[in-house]
Write a structure and sequence with these properties.
PNPLA_dom, Patatin, 324 residues, lipid degradation, alpha/beta, Cytosolic phospholipase A2 catalytic domain, 9-stranded mixed sheet, disordered C terminus, single chain, 38% helix, 10 helices, 11 strands, NTE, two-stranded antiparallel ribbon
Length: 324
């Protein structure tokens, strides 16, 4: 009898000890700190060229600001470099909209026939100094890349340091209209020739997700070109469409505001152009918000979404084999 009781008590003791060991093990597990959640993806936005149509970029940026979507990197070509430099220097999209409402072609260009172009860019310098709050790339609030094209080699030239105005002026040197700009011994023209939409520089800067804003305006004037700049503009549109397969490789999301019917110098339609940008980005805001949920969507697996225009492209967007 006594032996049975001792055996029973011993069994209880062993059970208590086993329970205690398991409890201690669980406490040890609970004491191990959980790994920190991964940081949200770094988002970059590429702003393509398009002259006055580039005012649509302001609408895109305004909606992103209103939605609280952070932009970590910006890259701009041509007019995209003007909007990008202003934004990165601390000017809000709302402030840019106020400037756009009163700006006209004469504010940054002066007709002056020259063997290399029809306009001088001296007014461009003054205009940029007024709207860009920083003098150098190093002073900017958001890292910026400005793209131009080497007229001799055809290579893309990416500015990420040094004076901002000089780089933007080179990026905006629209062939035939503005005279080429010489920087560090290289003769530079509009960045659209090498990087129609500068997505690759954003990847080089460290962007995990890339938004690409493409300003493709299709031919709507059935009576033909009005003047030489209509001809040049249409040539640019064709080149852009043919090169789209190249820059889209580095884009996670392509936003294409409907800017058909807007003239290259249509600055008087700023309100409509900005609205076109707002409408195009609102369609894909839910997708961008999903990017921020990094636990649900691993980096590198973004779905490419194109905001369709109401008018279908007249030119198929196929790779041209060109490279910067």
């Amino acid at each position: 009898m006594w032996t049975v009781r001792v055996a029973h008590i011993s069994k209880i003791v062993r059970s208590v000890k086993a329970f205690t060991r398991e409890l201690n093990r669980q406490e040890t597990i609970l004491d191990i700190p959980l790994p920190a959640p991964p940081p949200p993806p770094k988002i970059g936005i590429a702003l393509g060229g398009g002259f006055a149509r580039g005012l649509a970029h302001i609408g895109v940026l305004r909606v992103l600001q209103e939605e609280g979507i952070p932009i970590d990197f910006v890259a701009g070509t041509s007019v995209g470099s003007i909007v990008g430099a202003s934004f990165c220097s601390g000017i809000s999209a709302r402030e840019m909209q106020e400037i756009a409402a009163i700006v006209r072609f004469k504010d940054f260009a002066r007709w002056s026939l020259n063997k290399l172009g029809f306009c001088t860019s001296d007014r461009m310098d003054r205009f940029l100094c007024k709207i860009v709050k920083c003098k150098t790339f190093e002073e900017l609030n958001i890292p910026l890349a400005v793209v131009a094209t080497d007229l001799t080699t055809g290579e893309g030239v990416v500015f990420r340091s040094g004076p901002i105005v000089e780089a933007v002026r080179a990026s905006c040197a629209y062939p035939g209209m503005f005279q080429p700009v010489r920087v560090n011994g290289r003769l530079l023209v509009d960045g659209m020739l090498a990087h129609a939409v500068p997505t690759t520089p954003l990847r080089d800067m460290g962007a995990d997700r890339v938004l690409a804003v493409y300003l493709s305006a299709h031919w709507v004037n059935l009576k033909g070109p009005r003047h030489v700049f209509d001809v040049i503009g249409q040539c640019f549109s064709i080149a852009q469409a043919k090169m789209s397969g190249i820059w889209k490789r580095d884009a996670d999301l392509v936003i294409e505001p409907n800017v058909d019917g807007f003239a290259y110098d249509g600055f008087d339609r700023a309100t409509d152009l900005i609205r076109a940008g707002e409408n195009s980005i609102r369609e894909v805001v839910p997708t961008i918000h999903q990017w921020m949920k990094v636990a649900e969507i691993p980096l590198g697996s973004a779905t490419r979404v194109v905001s369709e225009k109401s008018v279908k492209p007249a030119i198929s967007a196929e790779p041209s084999g060109l490279s910067a």
